[in-house]
Structure formats: structure tokens, C-alpha cells
Amino acid sequence: MIWCVEDDASIRDIEVYALQSTGIEARGFEDGTSFWEALNGGEKPELAVIDVMLPGISGIDLLRRMKASSELCDIPVVMATAKDTEYDKITGLDLGADYYLTKPFGVMELVSCVKAVLRRAEADGLTAAEVADFQALPGNGLKATLDGQPLCGGNADFIRTAAGIPAPMQAQAQALAEAGKTPLFFARGGQLLGIIAVADVLKPDSPQAIRELRNMGIRVVMLTGDGSFHMNLNEACTAVSYELPIITVIFNNQVLGMVRQWQTAFYGKRFSQTDPHRKTNFVKLAEGFGLKGYRCTNLAEFQTAFAEALKNKGPTWIECMIDKDEKVLPMIPGGGDINDIIMK
Q: Residue 104: is the preceding peptide bond cis (ω within 30°)?
């Protein structure tokens, strides 16, 4: 159930109708007070679309109250308002809003936004299965316990002690070995899960290896900062020549971020040689190399760009603009150890 808080009845009806017409349950509230009373009455929506300018309790106050409540803080919130100044957006996002829609917006934009935020909230709620009793066994493989069941992976002789290997898979493993690869098997709870192959033998020439990489459908995503990327971006020529499926995500804070972070944390912000005053346009530079480039200033733009990058045949650059004082954490100070770790 999606709750829409909007004092303009016509806009509120359109929001509710647009969501319901796509199969999403929705309910409208005409002011902040009735919405807050419903929240405290035991009901909880999957997501709330809240206007900023509301009679009674304002949208910003509602957001602040929700994020301060242990019972309500996990509800995703989309702010919808005609106030489109940077200050208004930053205020809402800093308080914990998941998205900011600026009026006038299209009904499909609203629906797409709601679906995207719900997907992200669902992904954030996923938890990884607990792995315990991990053991690395050199020359054989590994053993562990996953959700209470024994898990193991390794060569055929090692796996046979935990699970049988059917004849077709043995033949597949033999073919992989003859092709210069090492077959590795995995089993859980006495049941064989599958097989993967690790390449051992170098191909006689790079083009052959590159063709195999591309034909396997493998995508490589490289995360880098603008400073380090400036030092080796010429390799884009090679990536374009061989149509390598590499997506490069460039976090651009326009400074030498790690050095600046150290100068901030340990040297009283006495900055030295960390701002090269570069004006590189990575999107145009990408086009100059013959590849596709994108520039993103928020999460929604990045999600769109990344989805497009996955469709591209060759290399792609995605430039993500971030604040020059964005921190990389955790970190350990010089001369320190794990007990001195800095988390914020």
C-alpha cells in the first residue's frame, strides 16, 4: 500500500489513480495531521509520497518525525513538491528522503519512481546467508557451513567425499581440463550444486583470449576515482579496439580525494597539491575515444546510465559527480592498526 499525502485534491486523486491503474494499492491523505494519525494508529504503508507544503504538519516535519521513530524510520519516502531549489532538495534528502519529485511531474514518472524506490528498499532488506566454520584446504578446496548445512568446493577427488559426480558432468570436467582450465565442483548438504572453470593456460595471442572473454557474456565493472583514472585513461584505446565489455564508474570529486581526506583528518585542513583544477569533460573525452560516456549527479541518473551501459557492446564510462569532501571509510591512520580504525 502506497500513501499519498497531498492537499490539492485533483493532484492527490491523480496520484492515487495512476498507482492503482498499474496494480499498486494506494490511499490518499489531504493533510499531514491525518497521515500522522494513521501512522500512529498501527497502519504502515510500503512507501509514502509526501508533499512538502501541507496544512497542519508540513511534509518536512512529517519526514523528520518518521526518521526519528524506530518504528517508522524504515518506510521509504518520496518528496513531491513545487519547491525545486537546491536547498529544498538537499534538506529533504539529508533528512532521509529516498527521492525528490519536482512538480509538475508526469504520472508515469511518479509510477516509475515509486517502483524504483520499492525495488531499492526490497534490495536493502535482503540479508546474506550466514557462513560459518570456513576452512581453506590447500590443494583440495574449501569447506564451510551455510545456513547449518555443510558446503564444500574444490577438485573432483575432494568433492567425491561429499557428493557423487554424474557421468555427464565428469565428461564436461574432462573437456574443460583438456582446454587448459581447472574444473571446480561445489556441493551443499551432500548434493552437487554445479561446476565452474578457472583458466590456467595463457592463450597464444591476446585477441583470441579477448574474443573468448567477450563471447562468454562477462561484464567487468571497474570503480575508480578521477585522479587515478587520469593516470591511465589512455587504455581506453585498447578497450575500444577490442570492444572489451568494461564499464568504468568514475567517482569525480575533482580533487585528489584520498590525500585531501588525510589532510582534513590529520593536518587541520592544510591542503597542499590536492586540487589540480582540472576541467576534464569525461563524456566528451569518451566520445573522442569512440566509446559511450554518461554523467550522473544522483542515484536515479546512475541507475539509468548503468542500465544503458549493460546494453552497450563495448566499453562505457559513467562519471558520477560527488562532493570533494566525500569520505572513503573505514580508514586506518598512519602508524595505526585495526584497533585505531576510523568509521566516521
A: yes
Beta pairing class for 141-146 and 131-137? antiparallel
CA-wise closest residue to 294 among 319, 322, 313, 312: 319
Percent of the chain with pLDDT over 90: 15
Distance (Å, rounded) from C-alpha 24 to C-alpha 28?
13
Q: Distance between CA atoms of 114 and 181, rounded to whole angstroms?
A: 46
C-alpha cell at 103: 512538480
- Please state, in angstroms and rounded to a whole number, the distance separating the CA atoms of residues 250 and 61: 36
Cα–Cα distance measured from residue 123 to residue 120, given in angstroms and rounded to the nearest whole number: 5
- Phi then psi for 299, rounded to 5 degrees? -65, -40
Separation between Cα atoms, residue 185 and residue 164, nearest integer Å: 11
User: Of 285, 301, 199, 203, which Cα lies nearest the Cα of 240?
Assistant: 285
- pLDDT tens digits, one per residue of 244-278: 889 999 999 888 878 888 888 888 888 888 788 88
Q: In the chain, what are the helix, strand and coil shares in percent, each to the nearest 5?
A: 40, 25, 35
Alpha-carbon distance of 266 to 270, in angstroms, equals 9
C-alpha dist (Å) from residue 219 to 120, 167, 201, 290, 314: 22, 31, 21, 19, 10
Higher-confidence residue: 18 or 82? 18
pLDDT band at 125 (very low <50, low <70, confident <90, very high): low
CA distances from 282 to 53, 303, 307, 337 (A): 39, 18, 19, 37
Q: Which residue reads 590443494 in cell numbers? A: 139
Q: What is the mean pLDDT of residues 202-219?
A: 57
* Residue 297 pLDDT level (bands cut at 50, 70, 90): very high
CA-to-CA separations, 178 to 61, 181, 197, 298, in angstroms, rounded = 67, 7, 12, 48
